[in-house]
Design goal:
8 strands; disordered C terminus; Jelly Rolls; eight-stranded antiparallel sheet; Arc Repressor Mutant, subunit A
Amino acid sequence: MVKSSMLESDFSLYLTHSVEDEDWQMVCTDAGSYKGLPGSSYPPHLEQHPAGFRTVAEGRRLNEYQMVYLLDGQGTLEVDGKHFSVRGGSLFLLFPEVPHAYRPDPTTGWTECWVGFKGPHVDALLASGILNPSRPLFHPGYQASLVAGFQSIFQQVKEQAPLYQFRACAEVLRLLAETLSLERLSAQQTKAQEIVEKAKAFIEASIPTVFNLEKLGSEVHLSQVQLNEVFKAYTGMTPYQYCLHAKINRAKEILSTGESSVKEIAWRVGFDDPYYFSRLFKKKTGSRPSEWTSSGTTATQN
């Protein structure tokens, strides 16, 4: 359960900025948070929002960027004709003049916090492709660092101490960097998992042959060192150790049929020396291959 109570409910501020603030190439335009119970009207307190902001549930265009982070509940997001389901842990970016709408599910409500910003510095991030209107939605999950970032922004815009605009914008950039970093890390983890699954399939298919780490690395386009690191991170063993594990499991399958000798099975799973195979099998399973054959059970399997 997200600790949404740490954010003030129904807080919103629409900010002014000076020429000096604009010299920083970025300004914070608005910020706030909202905790909506099931069945609550959305957005609440329409009179507290400028006219252009009130139609968020039906559809609107803004002349600024906004970052919206949901802490709980669920609902829908529409951006430039595309529809998304959003929930607690979702974060989405809204871009200038891009039509959008979002609203909580009336059966759940939601807790949101947002910040608006604009300026040449953000435009440059958009022009470079770092920010992309075709990728408005992120799923960082509940992150204490993101909540703390919004809290810091809220404190800056409430107190409005000297240079508060610069401080708030610096926090906005940190939130953007944190979100993009979490997304990239998630993508890298997904890619690494795909590599490991491909390597495991290649090992399984190559059981009768001698294990070749260089060939396996070439198959998944990684160096031997990189492959060892990635594979062990996901499986707890090196590719060679996994290969031995796969060979023993294949031997168990053949032994359970009772149709082959130990010597023949050793050869079929890639061991030239049946004595080494027997020793390894006992080490891994606690039973000799001959005992496994006679018992016809996998009760001692690790």
